């Protein structure tokens, strides 16, 4: 159980060093090839204070600024990644979400930071990334350089998405000191307990010992995060729930809370 290729996204408007160090640590832990990348795009139109729109010279200037920033990120990546880590660099002047989604085909795991901003030309749309790439996404907490994943919370719900996330997260779960499988439900019927028990047995077959928790109440992202903090979890594993609505994604409540949260590391699959 391991990740053999990890794609690490560097946001153009964030300091690169913490993310590169984190990527190095993960690549070393799992013996993985590390693909560093970055992208940003030029907005198609630029409006002046007079309401006029220019496309030519201003867009060329913005493109040059982006290319300069991408070169800086590449230099930092190359400087920090040791020769003992197999690695490569990719960059493009285009939508960061689109570029990362394309490059995801070469990876077992995507790693990106959350809270990069709302500018879709310079920041990844986390929801679109999770629901659209077909790969698990590790969304880091703000400004972290290490993800130890010593205590991992599996947010269980007996759905395809949760089963996918559980299987995708096995390499992390196998290295954790403690794994807690928890579900939030207003009913404490036998089917829910049987579901948790089956997941625990599944993990045991992979050599992973886990305990189960049934949290009473309605499924709620804040309740889940409160429980995660109570057990000092440093990684939450969850399925992602959403669907396309016109040109936007509509998310379930727990999924939206996890996407917007920035104080904890989240591992999400769809």
Give the SSE layout.
Blueprint: E1 5-9, H1 17-30, E2 33-40, E3 46-47, E4 53-54, H2 56-80, E5 87-93, H3 96-103, E6 109-113, H4 126-132, E7 137-140, E8 151-155, H5 160-168, H6 170-175, E9 178-185, H7 190-205, E10 210-216, H8 221-230, E11 235-239, E12 242-245, E13 248-251, H9 253-260, E14 266-269
Parallel strand pairs: 1-2, 1-6, 2-5, 6-7, 8-9, 8-11, 9-10, 11-14
Antiparallel strand pairs: 3-4, 7-14, 12-13
Query: In whole angstroms, how far apart are the ends?
Result: 20 Å
Q: Which percent range fits the helix content?
A: 25-40%
Instruction: Give the uncertain stretches in residue-range form.
Output: none
The number of helical segments is 9
| Form type | globular
SS class: alpha/beta
Proportion of beta-strand residues:
25-35%
Largest sheet: 10 strands, mixed
**Total number of strands:** 14
Gyration radius, to the nearest Å?
A: 20 Å
Order of helices and strands: EHEEEHEHEHEEHHEHEHEEEHE
Overview of this protein structure:
This protein has 270 residues and is of the alpha/beta class. The protein is 38% helix and 26% strand. The strands form three sheets. It has a ten-stranded mixed β-sheet with strand order 5-2-1-6-7-14-11-8-9-10, with helices on both faces. The chain has a two-stranded antiparallel ribbon with strand order 3-4. Strands 12-13 form a two-stranded antiparallel sheet. β3 and β4 (53-54) form a beta hairpin. α3 packs parallel to α4 and α8 packs across α9. The longest helix is centred in the first third of the chain and has 25 residues, at 56-80.
